[in-house]
Every structure is written in C-alpha cells, then in structure tokens.
Design a protein that fits this description.
elongated; 3 domains; Alpha-Beta Plaits; SH3 type barrels; 3-stranded antiparallel sheet; Helix Hairpins; about 55% helix; 5-stranded antiparallel sheet; alpha+beta; 8 helices
Length: about 270
C-alpha cells in the first residue's frame, strides 16, 4: 500500500504543483489586471481625455491582458501553447481584415477625440451641412442642423475632409453688403448704418467697426460693413442688423434698389396696317 501511495505521489506531485502555480498566477493576475486598469483610467481622467477614448483604451487593455493571462496559465499547466497562439493570431488577423473599414473609423475617431479640431457643441460646416456637434463616437460624428435634422458622418470621412469650425474662436466678424440707389445720399446711409451698429448690445467696440463704400455696381452703390461680436451672438446680430438697417433706411428715404424689367409697347401706324 505504501508503495502505491509513493508511486502516486511521485507521479502526480509535479502535476499538483503546476495546478497550484497556475491557480496562483490566475488569481494574482486577475486582480493585478483590475488594479492596473484602475490606475491607467485614473491617469487618463487626470489628463482630461475624452470618456469615449478612455472606455475604448480600457476595453483594449482589459481584453489584451486577459488573453496574455490565459496563455500564461495554460502554459503553466504544461499544455503546448504554440498552436493556441497561432490560432489566436490567425483569428485576430482575419477579424482585422474583415473589419478594416470599421478599424479606420475607430482610428479616425480616436484622432478626432485626441486632436480636438472640434468638440461637442461646436458649430461646423462640412459637406454642405452646417450644424452643431451633438455627439462624437468612435465610428461616427452626429451633427444636428439648425432645422433639426440629424446628420451622421463617418469619422474616417470627416478626418480626411475639409471642414469649417465656426465656434473655435470666441469672436466672429459679421460681414454684410448693403446696396443703395445712386440718387441717395451715401454719407447719410453710412451714418444710419453706423448708428444701428453702435446701438446694438451685441456689437463689440474692438476691433473697430468698418463701414465704407466698396463697389459701384450697375444699378447701385455697395456699402460694406464689418462688425465683430461674440461667437454665440453671431447669427442674432446679423439678422438684427439686416432688419434694423432696412427700417432706418425707410425712415430716412434711403432706397435699396432691386432688379426690375420695364416693358414699353409702341403702337405705330405700320403695326396697325
């Protein structure tokens, strides 16, 4: 009997030790991964990185470290892992090839979130669309137009295209051109425009307001105006100036010309014959 126990102990003592070592590696590795991920997430939060990027990086590190832990545990048990690693590599390559377009979108999304050419709430113009950034995801950016239409733009397309960010700076310049009739008093028209601009609460005193004659057109004199305002008040100021300048012109008899066609009918004796 003692010989049998001795034989079993000699035969399986190595196996038992491997199981214990594998269990300890799994246990410490599992909790070590949690601690490491918690530390990495904490560091990224301190760097004010976008939460979408943090969650993505957290998922990639979590999956990668657990795969490494699994391979280590299997190797500790004495199981050959060469073929296992080869299968994982082949499967990973196949998945990457199959999701090639999606991976491009993810990479573009990460670039946008890190570079921050725009952030949530910015007003941008891209591909004939103008609207406010509603959400930036890893694959798509959601744009809400001013008439409340949702535009979904793939990040790889957005990252490779030219767009205009109207909210990047704190101040914007309102550029307008007002046409008046040749018979009107130019100086009076300029004075009325300046009065409307200076009385508006959204007008900034610096840089200085610009009101000058810019062009002599076929049927009108063009007066250009440039006035600075805070970005959030841009559209309000532009619309108010358009409306209030017209009212000021009407009060003082300044005429804004418009295209018209005069038709003259001549009645001659030859036509009657």
């Amino acid at each position: 009997m003692e010989k049998i126990f001795s034989y079993l102990i000699d035969k399986y003592s190595g196996v038992g030790k491997n199981f214990i070592d594998a269990f300890l590696i799994f246990l410490f590795g599992w909790y070590g991964i949690k601690i490491l991920i918690h530390f990495i997430v904490k560091m990224m939060n301190r760097s004010h990185i976008d939460p979408i990027v943090i969650n993505f990086v957290k998922s990639i590190i979590h999956i990668g470290l657990k795969i490494i832990l699994l391979i280590t545990v299997i190797a500790q048990l004495g199981v050959p892992v060469t073929s296992f690693v080869a299968v994982l590599t082949t499967a990973g390559a196949a998945i990457v090839l199959g999701l090639q377009d999606s991976m491009k979108g993810i990479v573009s999304g990460i670039v946008i979130l890190f570079a921050k050419p725009f952030v949530k709430g910015d007003i941008i113009e891209v591909n004939t669309y103008i609207g406010k950034i509603q959400e930036i995801q890893l694959l798509y950016t959601i744009l809400m137009t001013f008439d409340n239409k949702m535009v979904v733009i793939p990040n790889n397309e957005l990252a490779s295209s030219t767009f205009v960010n109207y909210s990047h700076e704190d101040k914007r310049r309102v550029d307008m051109t007002i046409d008046i009739h040749y018979h009107n008093d130019v100086e009076l028209a300029k004075k009325l425009i300046m009065n409307v601009i200076n009385q508006h609460p959204y007008t900034l005193k610096e840089p200085l307001v610009y009101v000058r004659v810019s062009e002599y057109r076929e049927n009108s004199i063009a007066i250009s105006l440039r006035v600075w305002t805070e970005t959030e008040h841009y559209y309000d100021l532009k619309d108010d100036l358009t409306e209030q300048i017209k009212k000021a012109f009407d009060r003082e008899g300044i005429v804004i010309p418009y295209s018209q066609l005069d038709v003259h009918v001549h009645n001659s004796d030859e036509t009657q014959n």
